[in-house]
């Protein structure tokens, strides 16, 4: 999925764990998520993310957004580590990244997505159709809630052999 905007070429794509582009996502996650949470900065690729599905947004060749899809079981996937560059926030890229992630999840056969969202993002996830699963909880200075969304599978197209016609 490639899209253009007034800032130049915007590309939504999947990347490989521990690739050069993946390492750019670690820097973005450190900047946007880890520092504000008081968590240690990521230096190396976390091994627990090796089997995750890694999505990015690039503008003019630079990573400006990222998220992970973490398979939980055959029908459920978790959205993790959503980060948009501060210089690109407010442009709708977070919404577009979530829609892209839902599309990828549907194509892979998942029917449910869940995520843990910071208080500052609750309204954002609710606007995207996510429902609260449990009461809020705290981790350090941050307040979180768990959200879920049921997504519909993309219907498969029958082959010509399977199609019945009236003519």
TrEMBL record:
Lineage of the organism: Bacteria, Bacillati, Bacillota, Bacilli, Lactobacillales
InterPro entries assigned: Acyl_CoA_acyltransferase (IPR016181), GNAT_dom (IPR000182), NAA80 (IPR039840)
Ranges of residues in domain N-acetyltransferase: 12-149
Protein name, entry field: N-acetyltransferase domain-containing protein
Pfam family, one: Acetyltransf_1
Organism: Vagococcus luciliae
